[in-house]
Amino acid sequence: MKKLYHINSYKTIKVILLTVLLLSFHDIRAQNEENKDGDKLYFTMEKPYQTVNVGQVKGKKVKNVILMIGDGMGLNQISMAWVANHGKLNLDNFKQTGLSRTYAANKLITDSGAAGTAMATGQKTNYHAIGVDINGNPLPSLTDLAHEKGLSTAIVVTCGLTDATPATFCANNTDRDLEEEIAADFLDCNVDFLFGGGRNKFTQRKDGRNLMEEMQQRGYKSVKTWDETRTISSGKVFAVVEDGQLAKASERGDIWQQASMQAIDLISKNNKGFFAMLEGSRIDDYGHWHNIPDLMGEIFDFDKTIGKVIQWAEKDGQTLVIVLADHETGGLTFLDGDIQKGQVEGHYSTGGHSGIIIPVFAYGPQSEQFVGVYENTEVFSKIADILKLN
Ligand SMILES: [Zn+2]
User: Does 272 have pLDDT greater than 90?
Assistant: First the structure.
């Protein structure tokens, strides 16, 4: 009897131990699943990328403006990227800085629709509005005005073209979510080089229209891949290279950097000048998703593009480059790190946007115009004045 009891209890202990082990494995796995997209709050960059050093441009004449928007990129994001890249960013070349207030007309904490509209059109508007005033009236954007003055224009983004920021330069709608309506506005937006994702909104539509074909009929080279885009050496380009957004930085390679430089290459053939809007759109996503490694990846891709853009601008001598955000995302706090090791640790305080004032960096002739504290609408008025668009 005693022996049997012993065997039984031994078996019981074994079962309990196995159960505990299995449960703990399950726990670890569940935790890993959970961490796949969110709450990755540490990052180490072992090998930093090389940054460039450019000289400051002399002279006052501005022929071209390149507006680079890091969606959701506040000072904590920039500071962490600087530490993670071992104390270096291409952004360090910018000597003129300012601060821009982001609030919307009807809401303190803005979104990319209202903030983009403020910068693209010069008017504060309602949360989620795209290129319209508070009463829903369409407003001309910097790309519209530049086109009217005979300048060439470009929009190059890592999100869908019908997403809020690019949409504010090309479309007019009271609701950013009506993306199929917004897509149709691209037919009349006259931008010479368009690059991004969001193909479904142009081709898989409730109304059955194929807007990629309609763009082709309007004289655009309408293409679906980067390989096709890169071979285009003249004319108007409509490149929609993904059904949704572009893949994250660690998976898409340097196609956004290359597309940005190709856009500049093509539109700079216009002797009257150009206006380009380049957006690192997905910086915002990884703020919403509390994922610092992929956030850093997006900022690095953005900063590498900044390096290429300012080298081009230095050589050109008549190009003003402005780098800013539309708002901050996540209420990110930079908690700790190590510059030598490229280590950072952060903490998010919201899944949405925060209300903090955002930094503006300017390089090139007239860059001093962007020093100071001002409303986001002044980004529009300063650029419009400098390019004499009014
Ligand atoms: Zn956002």
Answer: yes
Distance 302 CA to ligand 1 centre (A): 17
Ligand 1 geometric centre to CA of 352 (Å): 7
Distance 315 CA to ligand 1 centre (A): 35
Q: Determine the distance separating the centroid of ligand 1 and the alpha carbon of 301, expressed in angstroms.
A: 18
Class for the domain spanning 41-386: alpha beta
**Ligand 1 midpoint to CA 295 (Å):** 13
390 alpha carbon to ligand 1 midpoint, in Å? Answer: 31
Q: How many residues in total does the chain contain?
A: 390
Q: pLDDT tens across 197-236, in order?
A: 999 999 999 999 999 999 999 999 999 999 999 999 999 9
- Domain positions in the chain: 1-36, 41-386
**Contact (Cβ atoms closer than 8 angstroms) between residue 269 and residue 52:** no
